[in-house]
Automatic annotation (TrEMBL):
Residues 1-37 form the signal peptide. Residues 54-264 form the SsuA/THI5-like domain. Gene3D superfamilies: Periplasmic binding protein-like II. This is Thiamine pyrimidine synthase. InterPro entries: NMT1/THI5, SsuA/THI5, TAT_signal. It comes from Bordetella trematum. SUPFAM superfamilies: Periplasmic binding protein-like II.
Length: 346
């Protein structure tokens, strides 16, 4: 289901596996070769991650120039989670946040005036992994277990709680253990019974000898989006026009990575801090390409890139309230705006 309703847009006054090993980086100017183009308008994107292979379509800007082609001079501020991206947006350091639904809902719950404008990964990429010997096959089996998460503010914890909610369980029914992003070692060492992770984290874990495990995919229970673009409310026509061009460029970059995954893997080997193994790059890119494509509707037609499934988003917002992660009800039609998507009517 694609939202077409226009909302008053955006001014407020005001995963993953390689982050721990990455050196701290400053703002990365992805469009540096084009920074002096006279027509380019500067736009700063606050990310949840360092420049890793998952976001190769953004890192490819010096090579492909998708944003330059739309008159956008793109800069990227790295982060360590969706909460970082929201904080950089609210502080005025960024124009757009690449964040997760939980961080978005929590900011809205605090009264921030924000709008989601593009569903980056409509497919949920989170999971809960356990050793075969633990015999954890379904969410109800997690009761009384120790479960690892990256951090208490991470999407791993939030999606774990959503998964527990589907089985009628809450956080008090389990013991949550903060293990950091490299959290398969505690699982193998018996420090936790299960661990929450992402698809790419699991991929790397298996490459490093994780062995046979049981995996519960959150999307099999509730396929809530993993990430979206968020802005502050504004009625500035120039800012709105810039955001339209940004989304057009991002869509083109995402379509390129879907169409040319091998080329993208080669770009990741030059641009991503975790891109040393091109074969792993290719697998990670394949996972992110799959997450970017929404399931086909009842008519057999898949929604365009960036479209919101309002029913699923509402289900997710309601689950966050039921879990106590947010205190007030959120009507997602009031905070998700598809009017800036490429091809949307103005």
């Amino acid at each position: 289901m694609t939202a077409t309703r226009r909302l008053p847009l955006l001014v407020s006054p005001s995963r993953r596996a390689w982050l721990a090993a990455a050196a701290s980086l400053g703002a990365l100017a992805l469009g540096a070769p084009f920074a002096h183009a006279s027509a380019a308008r500067k736009l700063t994107l606050a990310g949840w991650s360092k420049p890793i292979s998952e976001i190769t379509n953004l890192l490819a800007e010096p090579d492909k120039g998708f944003f330059k082609a739309q008159g956008v001079d793109l800069a990227y501020i790295p982060g360590a989670g969706g909460g970082d991206a929201i904080r950089n947006l609210l502080s005025g350091q960024a124009d757009v946040a690449f964040t997760d639904p939980g961080s978005f809902f929590m900011a809205l719950d605090k009264g921030e005036r924000l709008r989601g404008i593009y569903d980056i990964y409509p497919q949920n990429v989170f999971n809960v992994v356990s050793l075969k010997s633990a015999n954890i096959k379904r969410p109800a089996d997690l009761k009384g277990k120790r479960i690892g998460v990256y951090s208490l503010s991470s999407g791993t914890r939030q999606n774990l709680l959503v998964l527990l909610h589907q089985a009628g369980l809450s956080e008090s029914d389990v013991e949550i253990v903060v293990t950091g992003v490299l959290n398969f070692a505690p699982l193998l060492q018996g420090q936790v019974d299960a661990t929450a992770a992402t698809d790419t984290g699991l991929l790397v874990g298996r490459r490093r000898g994780l062995g046979e495990v049981d995996v519960m995919e959150v999307r099999d229970y509730i396929n809530l989006s993993s990430d979206l673009f968020v802005l502050r409310e504004t009625d500035d026509p120039q800012q709105i026009a810039l955001m339209r061009d940004f989304l057009r460029a991002y869509r083109d970059s995402a379509a390129w990575m879907i169409a040319e995954p091998d080329e993208a893997a080669a770009v990741a080997s030059r641009r991503a801090i975790d891109g040393t193994d091109r074969a792993i790059n290719r697998e990670i890119i394949g996972l992110r390409n799959a997450a970017a494509l929404a399931p086909a509707g009842a008519d057999g037609i898949a929604p365009p890139l960036g479209a919101f499934d309002m029913a699923l988003w509402q289900q997710g917002a309601d689950a966050y309230r039921d879990l106590g992660l947010i205190q007030r009800s959120i009507n997602v039609r009031d905070v998700l705006d598809a009017s800036l998507l490429p091809g949307a009517s103005r």
